[in-house]
Amino acid sequence: MPRIPKARKEGIVSKMLAPNPISIRQLALQENLSEATLYNWRNQLRQEGRPVPEHHRNGIKGRTKRY
């Protein structure tokens, strides 16, 4: 897969850091990226010391499931 342009990556990362971020799964589908790529980016942000919400496959940690 070709490298993702820096501007696009920054835009996607900003969605991960938004006050009410969507789940990694939803963001991956929306941006046509793999979940693994987004989890790797999230881990890189954490290593840089940036606060990043804890995402889970079913949504943000602490959210209740809706059936």
From TrEMBL:
SUPFAM superfamilies listed in its UniProt record: Homeodomain-like (SSF46689)
A GO molecular function held by the record: DNA binding
Superkingdom, taxonomy of origin: Bacteria
Pfam families: HTH_Tnp_1
GO BP terms: DNA transposition
Name assigned to this protein: Transposase
Species in which this protein is naturally found: Iodobacter fluviatilis
